[in-house]
Specification:
About 20% of the residues are buried. α1 crosses α2 (about 40-50). This protein has helices spanning about 1-20, 40-50, 115-125, and strands spanning about 25-35, 60-65, 70-75, 80, 95-100, 105-115. About 30% of the residues lie in helices and about 35% in strands.
């Protein structure tokens, strides 16, 4: 299952960002995964707790958005959303298209808990 190695790389990226932002915890991780990315979102979600164990991202909620498959027609230049197994232009029906979306896995956002927020909360107790 290559989703585990993908998750491990994702956790490394999250840890770098959290350290740069002086965060002590990660609340939520947002991903956008395209159907043509080669990554199964359900398997990635299953691998996430194992990959995040012992990291700043352990226990963070993982939210996955499925990206649309989009193509640009080389004939009429239209950009249309298409089915993953039918990469033809949605406007003119031509098959000379260029994939412009749907093959990506993007870390779109991370909700972090910063040290200052933890200190302020501790002072109010």
């Amino acid at each position: 299952m290559h989703e585990l190695s993908v998750c491990q790389a994702l956790i490394r990226q999250i840890e770098i960002i959290a350290e740069e932002q002086h965060a002590v915890d990660v609340k939520t991780v947002y991903l956008r995964i395209g159907p043509l990315s080669g990554i199964e979102p359900a398997l990635l979600a299953q691998a996430y707790p194992l990959a995040s164990a012992g990291s700043v991202a352990f226990g963070a909620e993982l939210r996955i958005e499925i990206a649309a498959v989009r193509v640009r027609c080389q004939h009429c230049h239209a950009e249309t959303e298409v089915l993953p197994n039918r990469l033809i232009c949605g406007e003119c029906g031509d098959w000379h298209t260029q994939l412009i979306g749907g093959d990506e896995m993007l870390l779109t956002r991370i909700e972090l808990v910063k040290r200052s927020a933890v200190l302020m909360e501790a002072q109010h107790v």
